[in-house]
TrEMBL record:
Protein name: Toll-like receptor 4
Residues of the signal peptide: 1-18
Bilayer disposition of the protein: Single-pass type I membrane protein
Short name of any one Pfam family annotated for the protein: LRR_8
Length: 817
């Protein structure tokens, strides 16, 4: 495993070889790990205190390798292929407190090389091919730890000068080749400070000379897997008589259940070792009943892990405070066996196969009971603990099923921590069961198959800090009131509860809430956050919900202390209508947990397009484009309306033409001539024109707008239908006023357009008064018309007057066949 990690690192870092080192803390901490470097880069400042130079290529260490780094305290040279270390190597890094040389094939140690490191406290020489502890390091008087695991050391003999190392406290000799320990090997240990940890695990110990450890004081002795055989262990434990050790760790690392042991007394040696804490990693199988605890009765902490123990004998522990029975395949919780133990404070009985809980009788000091990960199936909990009034911690998690009857925690008023997670709890959810637990701080009933029906479920939990109800269900709007009295709550886990909607007042009294976990629900909105009551919130997890967007006002009213906001794995709507929200995501990546997992689900549900990569600018462009297009459209519409208004008559005329143009043959013309004239000339038209034409012989029927136009019809329609189309001829009375009148010009233009379409039609122009030629150009077509065609000119002279009328009449009638 380690090997693979190491090679993975080597491969990974060889890629970035030659790059400068990584700054971990400015001026203080740098890592050059795995850069294939053969020198210390000049980019390392002289103020550096910690330098990780592992996995490089140094081979030959001498003075010139290290620049002057007087503040350097920690130097890691693990696996640098170092073979040779010269006397003056550490001259420039004298102030080192920690030197790590793990995994170098060192063949030569300059005799004085370590001695220049006067301040050295930790020396790590793991796996360097060391064959003896006789190192030249008599000047390292501040040395505290010497780690020389995984070497070929055959003796635990320490150099004599080490007995003066006042602070020395750790000698790690794991995985060496120590097979024999004799009394003279422990001479220095005997003199050394009484506070040392000695690790001898994974050595092939065959023989310990009896009494070799007599009167030695150790803080900890680790002899896990330190013996070649069970027999060697039995003899070895016996040989340790007279040893005083605070914590003794023995047993095995690996499971050895295949080998069956038939020696009932193999732990007898323990009776002659003075220890306070004992950790036995059993991992072996016995076919005879072993009295495991017989020699542990004076210990304060007893832990047995990984054995196959069928039963526990009645043991009169005298001072035991903590008992750990973990993974031992025990089917009974030792309740009766431990009865009347007044000293026991903590019982951890986990990963066993017990199905019931016995009565805990008269155990006044018991505070901590962990029965998690068993096979406990109960219909009625938890009266067994009536003899443990001090119980503060009860862990019944990871069991099959526990039923709670009325008043389940009666007598357990001191409970502070209660854990039922992943244990099916029957009876919770519709009863108020905790009313006496006024000190309860921590309640975990996650994944306990609970449906909350009653809003008073948590009644009485005045001091609850942590509530975990993940995987529960809520009936109706129970969630709205359930937490109302939990004013001390700081941590609420409601993940995976199938919550679709949360009423804003659900958390109204949770002013101290710091963590709210709503992961894996079906929430679409988190509008409840807009209310000011969750001011203290630091962490909010709403990942794996159905949130598509969060309105700006909610984002703006998020708690100011928020440091962690998990919004990942929601179907975020990345459309241009959400630019405020997406901009917020982009700008708040520091607060957002897993911002890389906030994906846009607008395009397709499987899209892995990150919201933070959304191009807001494209939306700005789109917006601009929309505005420009709208403005253009409006302009065009306005322009068109204006044109339509301005030329409405032409349009109407066109419409009429399109409606069906009746050719003059088929047309029943009602008038002989339509007169276009200015109203200023009306007197002349009425008195002269009408008089002369209509009353003459044959009478000519004139169409005069003020007389003949139909009421109620628009003027334009009248002009077209009655006047121009309904008359055979058109008489245009040109005068100064005619030229000035827009209506007249319009009528004339319409008349001309008929003239163009219909050759028969004719326009008869009467010049009533002289008009400047320049002005006639104002009327479209008039100037041209006057040039091309003959026209009649009105004159007051009676002779020419008479000729005028004759010519006019002729003009109207003559072409009228
Ligand atoms: C490491 O550096 C040496 C020269 O310093 C070079 O020959 C070798 O190929 C390098 N190894 C890797 C893995 O880059
Ligand atoms: C060496 O380290 C000690 C503390 O560990 C410090 O007081 C001293 O100043 C350092 N010396 C130099 C030369 O940096
Ligand atoms: C190394 O240093 C020690 C004392 O510091 C000295 O006795 C020894 O001669 C030196 N060896 C070499 C090869 O310089
Ligand atoms: C371990 O020590 C024994 C002698 O006690 C020796 O024969 C054996 O070769 C050593 N093993 C290694 C791996 O050095
Ligand atoms: C014993 O050593 C440990 C570190 O190994 C240290 O924390 C503790 O203070 C020491 N106790 C005494 C009494 O020196
Ligand atoms: C336990 O301690 C008592 C006295 O303190 C002693 O007599 C007894 O031998 C010890 N038992 C074991 C197994 O260490
Ligand atoms: C209860 O035990 C389980 C399993 O051993 C453990 O994971 C959990 O943290 C414990 N609960 C508490 C509150 O310590
Ligand atoms: C909250 O506490 C008040 C006062 O103690 C009590 O009247 C009310 O029933 C409690 N509500 C809930 C839901 O526990």
């Amino acid at each position: 495993m380690t090997f693979f990690t190491v090679s993975a690192f080597m491969i990974y870092f060889s890629i970035s070889a030659g790059e400068s080192c990584t700054k971990i803390t400015e001026n203080l901490h740098y890592s050059c790990m795995g850069r294939n470097l053969s020198f210390i880069p000049s980019s390392i400042p002289s103020s550096v205190q910690t330098l990780d130079f592992s996995f490089n290529v140094l081979k030959h260490l001498k003075k010139t390798v290290f620049p002057v780094l007087s503040f350097l305290q920690v130097l890691d040279l693990s696996r640098c292929q170092i073979k040779h270390i010269e006397n003056d190597t550490f001259y420039n890094v004298k102030n080192l407190t920690t030197l790590i040389l793990t995994g170098n094939p060192i063949t030569y140690f300059g005799p004085g090389c370590l001695n220049s490191l006067h301040n050295l406290q930790r020396l790590v020489l793991v796996d360097v091919g060391l064959s003896s502890l006789m190192l030249q390091m008599n000047d390292l008087t501040k040395l505290q730890e010497l780690r020389v695991g995984t070497n070929n050391i055959e003796s635990i003999s320490l150099p004599p000068f080490m007995s003066t190392f006042r602070e020395f406290s750790l000698l790690d000799l794991h995985a060496n080749n120590i097979s024999i320990i004799k009394t003279d090997h422990t001479a220095v240990l005997r003199e050394i400070v009484r506070n040392m940890t000695l690790i001898l695990s994974r050595n092939p110990l065959l023989y310990i000379e009896p009494g070799a450890f007599k009167d030695i004081y150790l803080r900890e002795l680790n002899i896990r897997s330190a013996f070649v055989s069970s027999a060697a262990q039995k003899a070895g434990l016996k040989a340790l008589y007279g040893l005083n050790v605070k914590r003794l760790m023995f047993g095995k690392y690996r499971c050895d259940y295949k080998i069956l042991l038939s020696d009932a007394n193999y732990l007898d040696g323990l009776c002659f070792i003075n220890f306070h804490e004992v950790y036995y990693y059993m991992k072996e199988k016995h076919d005879v009943p072993v009295s495991i605890f017989r020699c542990m009765i004076n210990a304060t902490i007893v832990a047995v892990k990984g054995g196959i123990i069928r039963e526990i004998a009645n043991v009169p522990f005298y001072e035991i405070k903590e008992l750990y029975l973990i993974s031992n395949q025990l089917d009974t919780v030792p309740g009766k066996k431990l009865a009347h133990l007044h000293t026991l404070e903590k019982l951890v009985f986990t990963n066993n196969v017990a199905t019931q809980i016995p009565d805990f009788i008269d155990m006044p000091s018991l505070q901590y009971v962990d029965l998690s990960s068993n096979q406990i199936t109960l219909t009625s909990c938890c009266s067994f603990f009536s003899g443990t009034p001090q119980l503060r911690y009860l862990n019944l998690s990871l069991n099959p099923q526990i039923g709670l009857s009325i008043g389940p925690f009666d007598g357990l008023d001191s409970l502070e921590i209660l854990d039922f997670h992943h244990t099916r709890v029957v009876g919770m959810g519709y009863l108020s069961l905790f009313s006496n637990l006024k000190y309860l701080r921590y309640l975990d009933i996650s994944y306990s198959s609970i449906t909350f029906i009653n809003i008073y479920c948590f009644y009485g939990l005045r001091n609850l800090n942590v509530l975990k109800i993940a995987g529960s269900n809520f009936q109706g709007d129970v969630a709205r009131y359930l937490f109302n009295n939990l004013t001390f709550l700081e941590h609420l886990d409601m993940s995976y509860c199938r919550v679709v909607e949360l009423h804003p007042s659900s958390f109204k009294n949770l002013q101290r809430l710091r963590l709210l976990n709503l992961r894996g629900n079906n929430l679409m909105t988190i509008d409840f956050l807009a209310l000011p009551n969750l001011k203290q919130l630091v962490s909010l997890y709403v990942d794996k919900n159905s949130i598509t967007s969060i309105p700006l006002h909610v984002l703006q009213s998020l708690p100011t202390n928020l440091l962690e906001f998990d919004l990942s794995s929601n179907p975020i709507d990345c459309s241009c209508s959400q630019t405020d929200f997406i901009l917020w995501i982009i700008q708040n990546q520091k607060v957002l947990k897993n911002p890389d997992n906030i994906f846009c689900k607008t395009f397709s549900p499987s899209s892995d397009f990150r919201a933070k990569d959304f191009d807001i600018h494209s939306c700005v462009h789109k917006k601009r484009l929309t505005i420009v297009l709208s403005v253009c459209f409006v302009t065009v519409v306005v322009l068109l309306s204006f044109l339509v208004y301005r030329f409405q008559f032409y349009l109407q005329y066109c419409c009429i033409l399109l409606r069906g143009y009746r050719s003059p043959g088929q047309q029943e013309c009602s008038y002989d001539a339509f007169v276009i004239f200015s109203s200023y000339d009306e007197v002349w038209v009425m008195n002269e024109l009408m008089e002369n034409l209509e009353n003459g012989v044959p009478p000519i029927q004139l169409c005069l707008h003020m007389r003949d136009f139909q009421a109620g019809k628009s003027i334009a329609s009248n002009i077209i239908d009655e006047g121009i189309m309904g008359s055979r001829k058109i008489i245009v009375v040109v005068s100064q006023h005619f030229i000035d009148s827009a209506w007249c010009r319009f009528e004339f233009e319409l008349a001309q357009s008929r003239f163009m379409m219909e050759r028969n039609a004719n326009i008869i122009i009467i010049i009533l008064e002289d008009v400047e030629e320049r002005k006639t150009k104002k009327v479209f077509g008039l100037h041209k018309h006057l040039k091309k065609n003959t026209y009649l000119k009105w004159s007051r002279d009676p002779l020419s007057n008479m000729r005028f009328w004759i010519r006019l009449r002729k003009a109207i009638i003559a072409t009228n066949q």
